[in-house]
Recover the amino acids of this structure.
């Protein structure tokens, strides 16, 4: 083989080797970049999934809070009208009881006093009321005494307080030792009635 | 040593250097690829991505909240209207109930 042929052989072999080294390097580099691209896609996918999950949770929480807020407003409207009903009923009761010549109220007052007295197991009872009602009851003590005595089948002694109490109407009855009390004022009855029939009041208020 | 052999040895040395250069070049290609891959991953990890998606979802949630609140407001208005018209009747019912003593 001539010298020139050998040199050409060396040159060709070198070129081939160089080509091979560079191609292998590029293939390895491409592989690294490809893997990085896959990793990037995976990271993006995980991030998107996390963002979606976070947003779903945010939506659930915010919708739930909004509904709670809405239900609270509905409750407030109902409470507002319950209070309005209470206030209006109290106003009407006050106007009804304040008329000195209202015969129906006078009958009811007597009944309220008898109901309260019959709820106190005591031979002697004391009645408190506002001034107008005390004046009326004082005039009717005998009637009440006789009715109550008949109901109990024994004598009952009724005393009326000298001092009037601040109430729109009705009575408070005490046993003489003060241990037993029956509050039958209109305010107390209104409060009791409200608690007893609150459900019905709500139904009636918001029915068609 | 003949000049021809020396010449061939020189040629062989040049070839080895060329191959070493190629190896260095390939190594540089690999290093650059690794660096680029690292940067790609680092970039996506740091990225505060999907802001558009978050904004879109947020405005959708706000819209749903508005619709819900509007429904409740409608319900409140409706309840208030009914209560206003029934108030007098209910007050009358309570009034009679309070005065409905057992002994009358």
């Amino acid at each position: 083989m001539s010298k020139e042929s050998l040199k050409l052989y060396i040159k060709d072999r070198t070129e081939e080797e160089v080509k091979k080294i560079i191609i292998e390097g590029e293939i390895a580099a491409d592989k690294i970049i490809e893997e990085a691209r896959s990793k990037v896609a995976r990271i993006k996918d995980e991030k998107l999934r996390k963002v979606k999950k976070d947003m779903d949770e945010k939506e659930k929480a915010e919708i739930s809070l909004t509904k709670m807020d809405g239900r609270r407003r509905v409750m407030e409207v109902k409470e507002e009208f319950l209070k309005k009903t209470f206030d209006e009923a109290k106003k009407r009761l006050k106007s009804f009881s304040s008329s000195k010549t209202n015969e129906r109220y006078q009958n009811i007052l007597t009944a309220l006093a008898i109901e309260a007295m019959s709820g106190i197991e005591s031979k002697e009872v004391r009645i408190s009321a506002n001034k107008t009602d005390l004046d009326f009851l004082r005039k009717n003590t005998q009637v009440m005494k006789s009715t109550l005595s008949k109901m109990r089948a024994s004598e009952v002694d009724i005393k009326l307080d000298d001092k009037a109490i601040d109430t729109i109407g009705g009575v408070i009855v005490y046993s003489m030792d003060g241990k037993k009390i029956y509050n039958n004022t209109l305010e107390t009855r209104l409060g009791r009635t409200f608690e007893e029939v609150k459900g019905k009041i709500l139904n009636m208020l918001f029915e068609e | 040593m003949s000049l021809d052999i020396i010449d061939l040895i020189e040629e062989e040395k040049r070839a080895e250097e060329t191959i070493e250069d190629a190896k260095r070049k390939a190594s540089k290609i690999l290093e650059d690829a690794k660096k680029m891959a690292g940067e790609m991953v680092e970039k996506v990890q740091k990225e505060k991505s999907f802001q558009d998606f978050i904004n879109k979802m947020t405005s959708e949630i706000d819209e749903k909240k508005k619709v819900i609140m509007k429904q409740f407001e409608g319900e409140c208005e409706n309840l208030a209207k009914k209560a206003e018209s029934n108030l007098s009747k209910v007050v009358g019912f309570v009034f009679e109930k309070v005065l409905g003593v057992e002994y009358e």
Chain A has a mean pLDDT of 94. Residues 1-70 of chain A form one domain. Chain A touches chain B through 73 residues (CB under 8 Å).
